[in-house]
Each structure stands twice: as structure tokens, then as C-alpha cells.
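Task card 7
Instruction: Convert sequence to C-alpha cells.
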Amino acid sequence: MERVAARTVTEADKNKPVYAVWELTIRCDHACAHCGSRAGAFQRPDELSREEMLDVADSLKRLGCREVTVIGGEAYLSPHCIPVIERLTELGIRVTMQTGGLGFTAARARRLKKAGLSAVGFSIDGPASVHDVLRDRPGSWIAATAGLKNARDAGLIVTANSQLNRLNRGHLRETAALLYERGARIWRCQLTVPMGRAADRPEWILQPHEVVELIDELAELQVEYAQRARDEGLPAKRIFNILAGNNLGYYGPHEVMLRSNPGGFEAYWRGCQAGRYAIGIESDGKIKACPSLPTAPYVGGNVRDRSLESLWFESPELNFVEQRSSEELWGFCKSCYYAEECMAGCSFTAHCTLGRRGNNPFCYYRATELKKQGKRERLVQIESPEGIPYDFGRFEVIEEALPDQ
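Output:
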């Protein structure tokens, strides 16, 4: 990747990292077949110590952070998980967790709640028959759905998230029904991206033209469940909301519906916010503008070498969104009507798919515009990943005529 010339961003023109995603450990009780970080049974040999983690928490407060989501691997497997949650809570920072839920017992849920955890999001990738394949562990679905109940019983706000791919694409309706019945407030959906182990399985990745029907169905479900909640007299805060993740959507007819919270302001895609309002922290102290970004091209430094504050303001890798222009766009995205606003959608998705930012084939508007011309796009993997955490290969976009109906 061509490096952008360094420019120091001062406090006067730099936004605060109001939201941080913090990988406390890469150790995990799963070894999911689509895991971007290739997490598993072992932690990194050089993960941050308790004191180093508490220093990071203090730095986040000084930078103006308001919410931290702790992840892994599995965050609860870090020996420092509880002290970190307690410190962040003492600092007035809201703490949430994303989990695979395998070990989310009732006792663990109560302990996390006592430490200050506010909410927990469970990864539910469809019915058991599909979920357990993606998680590469029989019984994973049973454990996750039990954990969801344990979290609710402990008084935690419960949400869910799903990675959408060719294995679970046909199970959206039954997944929505499960999550609604189990009391999830939000179901956040995103595309499985060819990073980490998912890049080892290119046949699982959705083809660009398939996102249109997928998004249409999610929108149908959103309307259905909003009406169901009203019919059942549920308060607004309990309406089951389906949200599009950062790599799903883009300027189709359902854009606002799938990006807005009930009763909140209308939202639509305004471009990648990596390093503007968000920051990612890896368990060995490496800092990225977004936790999902592939590590090698986007590490801005390490908190063991420089303070988090200096990295935030001075690292070009953390400030690429503010430094870039539409000159980096290429392919379809360069001439797109929404080019200046969208900037090729989610940066990590584009980079992990095509090897660099600036062109993103997973786009509702793009797929429908090509369809009007009798065309569609197909992805073919031409480079495989290395086999290290947060790695990626490279795909080629092939434009082809629509098949005869």
C-alpha cells in the first residue's frame, strides 16, 4: 500500500475517539472457521500486562472516549478483563462486550455486571446447523443462546450480531425469529469479509450481486418486526432493530431504515470513520484506526513505544481517513455518483477483498446500476492469505453479463 505523506493532526482539527474496540486477548475458546484474527487456544506471547492495560484505560479517558467494547478472542478469558472493566467504569466510560458466548455462564454474567459491564452482544450466525459449522464447534449454538439468557437474567442489555455469507444467507428469517424471542434489542448484520480464516474459504464469501436480495430481505424483516412490536404493545426501547454494519448497504432504498435507531435521527452512510471517532487496540498494544482493519498495512504504532495520545494525533496510519481524497478511488467507485460521500464504503472490506482501498464491489447501488446495464460482478480469489492474524489475500473483480432468466 502506498504510504500517505505524514501530517500531524492537532487537537484543534482532530476528533475524539469516542468509541474504542479493545481486543483484551487473542485467546479464545472457539477457533471459528471464519475468524479474522485467527484466534484460538493460545494468547499472544507479548500481550499487555494488567498495569499496561490500566494505563491504556486512563489514556482513553484523557482522549475523550465515551464507550469501549471489549473483545477477543474472548475478552472474558483475559486475566485482566474484570480489572479493565472496573477501571473504565470508574472513569465514566460505558463498557460493552462482544462474545461467542461459549463460556458465558450465569455466574460469569453476574460478575461482569457487577464489574460495570452495561451490555453484551452475542455472535449468532444462524440456526445450530449453520452456526456450529461457522464456529467450528458442535454445541456452540446451544451455549451461545444459553449465554444470551444468562446475560438478560443478570440485567445486561443484550444484542446480537451475525456475519452473513453463503452458508447462512438462506436463514435470515429464522435467525430473526430466534433473536426476537430471546429479547435481543439489536441485530447487527455485516458481511463476512475474506480476512483471516475466512480468506481460506473463498467459497463462503457472498458474490457482489447477492447483497441486493439479502438487504431487501433484512428490510422486509425490519418492517415486519416493527409492526409486531407495536401490535404487542412493546415500548420503543424494546423494538427489535435490525442494523446494517459498516460493510453492508450503501445508498439503496433501505439505507436509512437499516442504519437508524428507532426514535433517533435518520442515518445514512457517510464514509469510513476509522480514526475519526473510532480506534482499535490489539492485545499486544498495537493501535489501528479501526479494529477490523488488517494489521500489517494499518498499524499506527504500539502503546509500549509511544503514548496512545501521541499515536492518535500524529500517526498517519491512524489519520488516513482525514488525509485521503477521492484521488484514491478506482474502478466503479471512482465514477460513482456517491463517490465523494461514500469513499468506497468500508475500508477494511475493500482492502481485504481487492488488496487496497478505493473500490468496493459489495454495494447495493453498484449492483443495481450494473443490473440496469445487464451486467453483474463476480469475485475470484487470485492470492491466498499468509496464515497470520488479520491477514488477507486478494480477489479479482470480473464483470459478466447477467445469466438468462
